[in-house]
Design brief:
Chain lengths: ~300, ~800
């Protein structure tokens, strides 16, 4: 809350309140200092209505050259920290230049705001939405106040959702066929599947299913890819023989996933993969990675997030 | 081993450590912590370092903790999570083994809550458990599943049965769990290094009951009736048994099937069950399995006689017999012992279930013959015990050898026995006959019987007789001799045939056996002779083959065989016996001929002086009783006898034989014409002379006079004939003899003064005379001239 500290110096208190704050859902957002904070949740096309209150320190007046509120959608690369790229920027003028002697409220409204991207906080990049209130002053400088909010967008169930089925193997060593019931899963979905062992000449020790997130930032030669394993789920213990089939049932809900972001404003993408890993007795790993699409399903997810 | 103990201790410590936290979480109704610590606790079961035995110990610790957890899961108001959610929640655990233990635990609560169909939960659990492919861990996990689900199967009458949940679901669940467990169990064998094969086998053996328990569970399901068993359970289990291609598993599971399911089911599904046997590995110990089955079935049959029609209806015997044939064919490596164990079992089954079906018994024996033919005896000898058991079984059962004799294959089996066991078997047969006092009554049966025991009757090819000690040999031959007395038929004709048959077999016995076997045969024939003679009045026809004459012809043949051996004394006795019998039948020429034979033997074969003494006395004794001889024949024979008597080597023997001859001239019979007092006296006098000569000889050679026994004996003869009224014996002769003896006694240097006590024989003789004198009457009168 460094902006509050900043706001200490000037002789006024600036706050932003949303009109439906009492009813609006909130979501947890991890702040830069590592703490999580519950903040209001919006989605694209929502009307963002609220009030900016400016309350001078008693006995002082605030002289300004105008007050405005901006709605910004920003992408920040950690490699270029502090430098925000605004992909959305809307402005509402709240007041003409003048003086404020006592607390004054300025209602504002952004209607049907296009917010195509979700709030995201990754390893190398973050995407945030923020309301920025600026009280322009000459000397001793403008007063700026930020209010974050979270955006999440829901998708309907995909009309086509094929299973993933594939036969892979190493010649004369290991042949397996695996099947995941879908290629697109929502955040609280369950992955159901099976692994058939068609040929086993290696002594297996165990088999895991990993969920991996691949965050890719930048473009062209400066593309930077970061992969993290979010889930490691043991599917099998011991060495199967030919003909065995091992069931898969992995609940996604315990893991902190986001939807797949294919291309966020040409700045970054976030993709998910299922990585099937077989480990033999000499700890050699055999794996096969398959991309899955993760989406946010409307209703049930809304309920789940109504904390 | 020490390492293993250490690892086990570590595992237990891990469980205990987490158990403390688990209990704390449970006490404070903290579901999240409870799941966390339970999963950690169960992680100890992920070890690969323990042998099944130790692993079991660890498993039991975890099991106890899971019971606690299950109680907690049941109380929704404590943890505030519905069982459906709980079922999902435990599946979030990252490690598969703890996850599945938890899932099974919740699953059991889930079924109990009835919020879902039991079958769905069971199916899900049994499927999910596939994820554990490690044999030992998988077996224990599934065993846990079997344990917690056992009282929750939708069985008939169970609270879990109902809409959508049927017995079939329960059966399918258990069968599937069984199949998977068996696969794991079998796989164990192939996952270790080859050198540890034996150790692995031992370890696997320790785990077998985990697998078998499933079969037990199925058998306990009330709803599994014959139809379900036949149509579902049996085919599926057998399929698994056959396909697993593992020796240990096939043996154990077959045995298990037989033990856990009711006999009635086995009987009704015999074909299917047996059909699986030839498909098993050739090394599987099927003989034990099948023997068990047959034993169970025969117990079942004998438990209730009303079941017999069922056995017949399902053709139990032929099915078993077929199956055994096929198994033997399939298991070409099966040692002959195994083969015979199977046949013995089948035979026992037959005898117990179908005692009246001799054809079955014969069929079994026939199969044995088939199996035996072409096998060298040396190989067969390894299975001696079994073959003997096989052959003894019908005897024990029937108490009646005669039935066994009708089995055409019986002797054929015996033919394949080595001489040793063959004899043993023959002895068994004889003992059985003796024990049950079975009478063998036709020549055909005798033929078969003697064919069976021919091991005792002659030296079999290649058999060495030296090995046998005399005692055993004697016992064997005595048994054969005894056996001959058990052969009997009221009809003389048949009896003669029997005798002929026996003779045919006995005649080849050789010099060692004939002395044992001939006498009983001779006596048996003589018995027949007497019987025929008694009946002669009734049987008029000379056509009858069983005339005494014919029998005597046979007899002389028989004895002739004996005299050809160096057994003249025995032959002589038998001739005399026959002669006596011929005498009774009034067959003078036959008797004469027999006597002639006896004398010939005496002359030509009996050289030993002692034997001569015995023989001559026998001859005299027999001759004395002969009444059929005419005067001429009798004179000839008597003359011969007397002549031989006087030619004995030792004087005392001569003396005794001669005075014995005196009886030949005096047949003490009312109407006998043969009373020649003169010749009696002649004999006695002659013997007295010889006695004197003997005494004299002793005096000359040794300087002492011999005992007076001979004189006293002669005195007794005198007294005898005197009493019988021989006019040639006068009281004075007796008187003289008494005086002579007294003199002899006194002249004996050893006893200076004679007293009756010094020679009790003489004393009692005198006492007798005294007694007769005092008796008075005619006898007293007669004796009165004698002065003592």
């Amino acid at each position: 809350m460094n902006f509050i500290i900043e706001a200490f110096k000037p002789a006024c208190h600036v706050s932003v309140t949303f009109a439906d704050a009492k009813h609006r859902k909130q979501a947890a957002l991890k702040k830069e200092n590592g703490k999580t904070e519950m903040i209001p949740l919006f989605r694209s096309q929502d009307n963002i209505i609220g009030t900016v209150s400016v309350e001078p320190v008693p006995g002082k007046k605030v002289e300004h050259k105008g007050i405005k509120v901006e709605l910004l959608g920003q992408i920040e690369m950690y490699s270029d920290r502090g430098n925000f790229y605004d992909f959305t920027s809307l402005v509402r003028e709240l007041d003409i230049p003048g003086e404020i002697y006592e607390k004054k409220d300025f209602p504002f409204e952004f209607s049907s705001v296009e917010m195509p991207y979700e709030t995201y906080s990754g390893i190398n990049v973050r995407l945030r939405y923020v309301l920025k209130v600026t009280i322009t002053r000459g000397y001793p400088g403008s007063i700026v106040q930020f209010q974050d909010f979270v955006v999440r967008n829901y998708s309907p169930s995909p009309s086509i959702n094929n299973s993933i089925k594939m036969e892979v193997g190493i010649e004369d060593c290991l042949h397996i066929e695996f099947e995941y019931n879908k290629s697109k899963y929502h955040l609280k979905d369950v992955i159901i599947g099976k692994i058939y062992f068609l040929l086993v000449r290696i002594k297996m020790k165990n088999m895991d299913l990993e969920i991996r997130r691949r965050e890719s930032t930048g473009s062209g030669t400066s593309t930077h890819v970061e992969t993290e394993t979010l889930a490691k789920y043991e599917l099998m213990d011991g060495a199967p023989v030919r003909g065995e089939s091992i069931p898969i049932r992995l609940f996604l809900s315990p893991y902190e996933l986001t939807p797949t972001y294919r291309n966020t404003n040409n700045k970054f993408s976030v993709k998910y993969y299922l990585n099937l890993v077989l480990v033999d007795e000499e700890d050699r790993r055999y794996f096969k990675q398959q991309e899955i699409t993760i989406y946010r399903l409307a209703e049930s997810s809304e309920q789940a997030e109504a904390l | 081993m020490e390492d293993e103990d250490k690892w086990l201790a570590e595992g237990i410590a891990g469980i205990q450590h987490n158990a403390v936290y688990l209990h704390r979480a449970l006490d404070s109704d903290n579901l999240r912590d409870a799941l966390k610590y339970a999963a950690q606790l169960l992680s100890e079961l992920r070890t690969s370092r323990l042998s099944p035995h130790k692993y079991y110990e660890l498993y039991m610790r975890a099991f106890d903790e899971l019971r606690r957890l299950e109680m907690f899961f049941k109380e929704e108001d404590r943890h505030g999570c519905s069982v459906v959610d709980l079922y999902e929640l435990v599946q979030h655990a990252g490690n598969v083994l703890p996850r599945l233990y938890l899932l099974c635990t919740v699953g059991s609560v889930y079924i109990k809550s009835k919020e879902a169909l039991a079958k769905d939960v069971l199916k899900d659990l049994v499927e999910m458990c596939r994820a554990v492919q490690h044999p030992v861990r998988g077996l224990f996990l599934r065993s846990y599943l079997a344990q917690v689900s056992r009282d929750k199967l939708p069985d008939i009458g169970s609270e879990y049965e109902g809409e959508g949940d049927t017995v079939m679901d329960a059966v399918e669940f258990v069968l599937q769990n069984f199949t998977e467990m068996n696969k794991l169990w079998v796989r164990m064998q192939h996952q270790g290094p080859f050198i540890e094969k034996q150790k692995l086998e031992k370890e696997r053996n320790e785990l077998r009951d985990l697998v078998g328990k499933n079969l037990h569970v199925i058998s306990q399901i009330e709803g599994v009736d014959l139809d379900i068993y036949r149509d579902t359970v049996l085919p599926k289990v057998l399929e698994q048994i056959v396909n697993c291609k593992d020796e240990l598993a096939q043996y154990y599971l077959m045995d298990c099937m037989i033990q856990v399911f009711p006999d009635e089911y086995h009987l009704q599904t015999l074909e299917t069950l047996l059909g699986a046997c030839p498909q098993l590995l050739p090394t599987v110990d099927l003989k034990t399995v099948l023997s068990q089955l047959m034993e169970r079935l025969s117990n079942y049959a004998s438990s209730n006689p009303e079941l017999l029609p069922e056995f017949l209806q399902v053709e139990a015997f032929s099915k078993l017999s077929n199956a055994i044939g096929k198994v033997i064919e399939a298991q070409f490596d099966m040692p002959i012992v195994g083969t015979f164990t199977l046949y013995v079992s089948l035979l026992t089954f037959t005898l117990r279930v179908h005692p009246d079906r001799l054809d079955y018994v014969d069929q079994v024996l026939g199969s044995c013959v088939k199996k035996l033919s072409g096998k060298p005896k040396a190989e067969v000898s390894k299975a001696t015990k079994q073959v003997v058991a096989l052959l003894s079984a019908p005897l024990d059962k029937y108490d009646d050898i005669v039935r066994a004799l009708t089995l055409s294959n019986y002797p054929r089996v015996m033919d394949h026995l080595d001489s040793g066991p063959n004899k043993v078997m023959a002895m068994v047969i004889i003992k059985s006959i003796m024990k049950n006092k079975t009478c063998v009554s036709t020549s055909d049966k005798v033929e078969v019987l003697f064919e069976l025991i021919k091991g005792l009757l002659k030296d079999l090819d290649g058999a060495s007789t030296e090995e046998l000690d005399d005692e055993d040999f004697n016992e064997e031959q005595n048994s054969v001799a005894c056996l001959m007395h058990m052969l009997y038929n009221d009809d003389p004709e048949e009896m003669l045939k029997i005798i002929c048959t026996v003779w045919k077999h006995v005649v080849v016995g050789g010099p060692r056996r004939l002395p044992f076997t001939v006498p009983p045969l001779v006596f048996s024939a003589l018995k027949l002779v007497r019987r025929v003679h008694r009946q002669d009045g009734d049987v008029a026809g000379e056509e009858s083959p069983a005339t005494p004459r014919k029998i005597f012809q046979l007899l002389s043949q028989i004895i002739d065989a004996l005299s050809a051996l160096p057994a003249p004394e025995l032959a002589l006795r038998l001739y005399l016996q026959c002669a006596e019998a011929a005498n009774d039948c009034e067959l003078e020429p036959v008797a004469y001929d027999l006597f002639t034979q006896a004398f010939v033997l005496y002359e030509e074969e009996i050289a030993d002086s002692k034997a001569q003494v015995v023989a001559i006395h026998l001859i005299i004794g027999t001759l004395q009783r002969m009444h059929a001889f005419g005067v001429e024949n009798r004179d000839t024979l008597t003359h011969k006898a007397t002549g031989y008597s006087a030619k004995l080597l030792k004087k005392p023997d001569q003396c005794r034989a001669v005075y014995a001859c005196s009886h030949l001239f005096w047949v003490d019979d009312q109407d006998s014409s043969n009373k020649d007092g003169e010749r009696v006296l002649l004999c006695l006098k002659r013997s007295l002379r010889i006695a004197n000569a003997a005494q004299q000889m002793l005096n000359d050679t040794r300087g002492v006079s011999g005992p007076v026994t001979l004189f006293i004996e002669i005195l007794n003869k005198y007294i005898y004939f005197f009493e019988k009224g021989n006019p040639q014996i006068s009281p004075s002769a007796i008187q003289d003899l008494i005086e002579l003896i007294k003199t002899e006694l006194q002249s004996d240097g050893i006893t200076p003064s004679w007293s009756p006590a010094s020679d009790p024989f003489f004393a009692s003789t005198l006492r007798y005379v005294q007694f007769q004198k005092q008796k008075g009457g005619a006898m007293g009168e007669k004796y009165s001239p004698i002065k003592l």
